[in-house]
Amino acid sequence: MTKVTVMMGVGVLVALVGGCAMQSNGPVTIVSPGGVSGGPPVTRVEPVTDTVQGVLITDNYRWLEGDNSDPTAMGKMTPEVAAWTDEQNAYTRAFLDNLPGRKELEDQLRPLMEVGSVSAPGMYANRYFYSKREGNENQPVHYWREGYKGSPKVLIDPAVVDSTGLTTVTWVAPSHNGKMAAYGTYHAGDENTTLHLRDVDSGKDLADVIPGKVSEISWLPDGSAFVYRNLKDLKNPYSGQIKFHVVGEDPSKDKLIFRQYLPDEDEKLATTYGPGMSLSKDGRWLAISYYTDTRNNDLWVVDFPRWRETGELYGEFLSVGEPAQSNGTSIGDTFYMFTTLEAPNGRIVKVDLNHSGRANWKTIIAERPDAVITGFDIAAGVLAVNYLHNASSTIALFDVNGESRGELRLPGIGSAGLSAEQDRTEAYLSFTSFNYPSSIFRVDLANPSGEPELWERPDVPVDPASVEVTQEWYTSKDGTKVSMFIVHKKGLTLNGNNPTILYGYGGFSVSITPTFSAAMFQWLNSGGVYAVANLRGGGEYGEHWHESGKLANKQNVFDDFAAACEWLIKNRYTRAERLAIRGGSNGGLLTGTMVTQRPDLFAAALVYVPLLDMVRFQDFLMAKYWVPEYGSSADADQFKYIMKYSPYQNIKTGTKYPAVLLTAGENDARVHPMHARKYAAALRAATGSDPLEKPVLLWVDREAGHGQGKPLNLRIREIADERIFLMRQLGMLDYNQK
């Protein structure tokens, strides 16, 4: 499939281990009508003092980082941290599982969470490959069809691979003729993907197995070999490499094409995501990119047959050393390239690879001031360009010289994507919105005004037409206008009393756009409001929008979110006592910071797989990737603004903090669980609120990582935990319920 997408930079309780030097309030006791008695477990204080950039910092809970002798390793818990985690998990389960209405809530959520999902098919010769999850399946099954109306045939069923549901098939990459398929698997959310090869017709795997977090693959035209990216050393997230594998040969003998820089070669570039690649359909040109920070990259195109013959990387440098993102694909000797160079909202240029100097570039799709290019697809004679306008999708069609062919018809305002191929105008449109179930349509890009043909849409047990969606604009602290989607049942009364969830992310140029969730209808049907703020730091309004929410501008993200809270309260959607905030990963940093900066604005916070100790974050796992986004305390100037907002260091004793539910994944390869552990301990010790009325809860999932690939049963538990916690804190539970 020829797709060019704008890239971006992020269980069962175990018996307690005895004999550890830690204090506790004793065993958890369940009391009616839900919750626990005696307060939360007490965490011992063991101060460690550091001087950072001349500032004395005391860390009372350094021991909760566990064994950090190898900071890049996952799950390095000492026995005492394991015991502490088990105690926290037991307390959290006792608190949440015994709240009134928990079982009834799960009964409501299960059929909504069991709504199926389907992906748009990728087209390879006359074969169509896609994934689909139905009913109570823990993981999607991967299928293929001969012809788009052919009978579905199972390619890979994760339940056959692993009956526990903890193994995820994270990607499938068929060869161009559809006869062979590479696929990647990981276990329990660890994202350490292993590549396997499967013969499509027989359904049998070959002996070829390539470990090391394989994340990209491009096939030769005849399917005899492929190029891939993985890590040389799984323990070193900064050891990216590009290699060449011949089907049937020993992977240990695969030839190295390119590797990540070493610290003594380039200290800065040695700790970015490093190299990526894409091979042209005809096998002629290998595009190699190298991340220079979380967003930007160098790009050059290599004569691949010459490398195979001589081992020489000879090619054309297209963008090197520029503060820009660039990627693309070639047809013959013409390279079609998306770039933000001299165009923060993106443009598409046409490059003759035999005369690739910048003076010879031809801009065929110019930058638009009112919309952001998020990617493009190439079909037969057609460029399909995906734009974001006011945080919603449009798809414009052009010929290969940039002449307009109109816009593709979309069902409404929402999020759209396209699956297309160079040899046909047949394509598959994915579309979703808050009130429109995710749907796949077959379209003809040569006839954009034609009626789309519905290909697949899972049945949903809700009425999407029962809710309405509006987009509002509000003013942030510095006068910047920020957009926000608001979703609720039709006929909502603006009385200032509606329980409301406000979601945000605000980082890494990630765009938060409308998407359908059947499970959200439980909240909406209970009278709840769901709001999504398009904060600075995201990509909804171009690279300027991203830049205005990173590094020294990070405080703008928090100010934007606070202003969204204030707008919802002022306009009588809700009030502080009935408002909750929600965010994960970088969004967990957002909500964790809001707890310490503006605890007056909301009653509850959901802080998922978060970054919270920003003074030490860069020293764990792959977090050096994110230094260009956040900065580092190792830099004196950057330390000054990091220290002002870092949530863990800004907890103040005696402050009446809202209720907080934190989560972490023990197998998280991205964000170390130490962030959630330390913050939970410190916040719980400092809060001036009643610990039973405004609890600080921590759930560390022993069977999960950052959240990707989580099986259905764990996702149901997760969403039930979230909802019952919010319903308690926002006054939605009936405590007379038995």
What is the helix tally? 12
CATH superfamily of the largest domain: Alpha/Beta hydrolase fold, catalytic domain
Q: What's the alpha carbon Rg, rounded to whole Å?
A: 26 Å
Which class do the helix and strand fractions yield? alpha+beta
Q: Sheet with the most strands?
A: 8 strands, mixed
User: Proportion of β residues?
Assistant: 25-35%
| Total strand segments | 42
CATH domain class of the largest domain: Alpha Beta
Fraction of residues in H or I helices? 10-25%
Mean pLDDT: 93
Question: What is the oligomeric state here?
Answer: single chain
Name the strands of the widest sheet in spatial order.
35-36-38-37-39-40-41-42
General form: globular
The count of domains is: 4
How far apart lie the N and C ends? Answer: 55 Å
CATH architecture of the largest domain: 3-Layer(aba) Sandwich
Q: Could you name the CATH topology of the largest domain?
A: Rossmann fold
Low-confidence stretches: 1-35
Describe this structure in a few short sentences.
This protein is α+β, with helices and mostly antiparallel strands and 738 residues long. Helices cover 17% and strands 33% of the residues.
